[in-house]
Hints:
Layout: H1 3-18, H2 22-44, H3 61-82, H4 84-92, H5 95-100, H6 106-134, H7 146-165, H8 172-188, H9 200-207, H10 210-222, H11 231-258
Amino acid sequence: MTVLAGSGRVWQRNWLVYKRLWHRSLAFGFLQPILFLTAMGIGIGALLTPGDLSAFGGVPYIDWLGPGLLAAMAMQTSTFESTYPIMNKIMWGRNYEAMLSTPLGVRSIVFGELAWSAFRIGTLAAVFLVVLALFGIVRTPLAVLAIPVATLVGVAFSSCLIAFTATQKNDVGFSAIFRFVINPLFLLSGTFFPLTNLPEQAQWVAWATPLFHGVQLIRGSILDQLDPLTAPFHLAYLLVMFGIGAYLADRNLTKRMAG
């Protein structure tokens, strides 16, 4: 069986599990951005004066916030998909042992899981973009590019997290990932406020984080502010992250299943 065909089988297995509750997942995916945009975009945005909006490029705060939340959603969804569910398939449910007793190989499993993450994040990103359009945030047809970019952000994180999960003997390490990686990235990667509000040293650290590059690409595509000079660099960063993560995921999971 080829890697591509095997990956499709892994994707299909995940779909058969997911299809019993897909409607709940999409309903939550629709409700979550509405709550965030209402509470923070409209609620907190109402406290800002016209002078404050200059920090957000002259656009209303809700317009500036929405695309950042879309990028953050991609990161968080990939985290949920690539930590406990993967560990369950390695250790508790031993799904991967069963899969490897068939013609499937580890590489098919890795790329099947990444394809599943891409599907989940892509569908949620499409729902999120519809919500942004309903709030009047979308400024250009190029906003549809936010869906593949959000998907790339998600699989870049997923690949690295699968590589990490494959090395863990229990779930203790996940708490550290959530507290010291995912939450700081969510708060300090330009999602809620411009990086120029941070001290200069902190700006450089935040600029080097992967979520920042996703936020810049998604915000630029939705608000029609995509910078043709910096966009290729942001894209290259995420592609390199995905490539490194996929390589490490394949290597680490191979070692783990061989042990």
